[in-house]
Design goal:
With 261 residues, the protein is mainly alpha-helical. It is built from 13 helices and three strands; from the N terminus they run H-H-E-H-H-H-E-E-H-H-H-H-H-H-H-H. A three-stranded antiparallel beta sheet has the order 1-2-3. A hairpin with a 4-residue loop joins strand 2 and strand 3 (112-113). The radius of gyration is 19 Å and the shape is globular. The protein starts with 11 loop residues before the first helix and ends in a 7-residue tail after the last helix.
Length: 261
């Protein structure tokens, strides 16, 4: 499956690396992640989360495919299918013009647009996509490069959500209450920050076909039910807790090359 990567979730060292690069505290950084992607950068099949923007593809190909493929080339934004179905749209565009297609999707945990590859630290959209496929640390570093490259790190450090939203989400940010949602997420994250170890377990459950709900590092009923289902299938005591035996089996199955949380 094209674009399938390792699906490696963010680690503590990866988070520290990105926070140090931006000189920001983790709750401020994670507020952006929460609003952009609900907090996880991969789909169940370990492809990066994307959103294909047909108006960007239309613009980058001068509209020459609009007549034959209006579903992926239109001057007006829209046509979103969500989740894995966004790759259907992406592949339709790739068949017409690969470079423009990759540049017309937003990628990973920070939803960095492919055409922003240079400010994100890559020589091409292909290079950006390859990094996005590898792990969430790369995804978050690309987001951090975009933030600093556009001078938005100062607004993020000041928690000036209006200024940050205008620069990160565009001039129409208020229409979606982007700044308000960032502020609310930041307040909540200062009280309760995701447990990255649990988040890795949730990711492993997702990849194994057990629905943990959101991969958010917060323990809820769906995560507990998924753990019980996994434990039962593995012949483990169905405690519903991410104990050491359960965690070891999950992580070994999901990340055969190893994962240092």
């Amino acid at each position: 499956m094209e674009f399938q990567g390792t699906g490696t979730p963010l680690t503590e060292s990866g988070l520290d690396r990105v926070c140090d690069a931006l000189d920001v505290k983790a709750p401020a950084l994670w507020a952006v992640v929460t609003v952009e992607t609900r907090g996880f950068g991969f789909l169940q099949e370990k492809r990066p989360l994307i959103l294909f923007e047909r108006h960007i593809f239309h613009r980058r190909t001068n509209g020459r495919f609009a007549a034959i493929a209006p579903q992926v080339s239109d001057p007006i934004p829209g046509g979103y299918l969500g989740g894995a179905l966004e790759y259907v749209r992406l592949h339709e565009a790739i068949a017409l013009h690969r470079r423009a297609a990759l540049e017309s999707a937003s990628w990973g945990i920070g939803q960095v647009m492919g055409f922003n590859h240079q400010v994100a630290g890559f020589s091409s959209a292909e290079e950006l996509v390859a990094a996005m496929m590898h792990d969430e640390t790369n995804q978050l570093l690309a987001m951090a490069n975009f933030i600093s490259g556009n001078g938005l790190d100062r607004a993020l450090r000041r928690h000036d959500w209006v200024a940050f939203a205008r620069g990160y989400n565009g001039p129409d940010f208020a229409r979606n209450e982007y700044d308000t949602r960032l502020k609310a997420a930041h307040v909540e994250l200062q009280e309760s920050f995701p447990d990255l170890r649990l988040r890795a377990v949730q990711a492993a459950l997702l990849y194994a076909g057990f629905d943990p709900g959101r991969v958010d590092g917060l323990f809820g009923k769906r995560t507990r039910a998924a753990l019980i289902a996994f434990q039962t299938k593995q012949g483990l005591a169905p405690t519903g807790d991410a104990n050491s035996d359960t965690e070891a089996r999950l992580l070994a199955a999901a990340f055969p090359d190893g994962l240092v949380i």
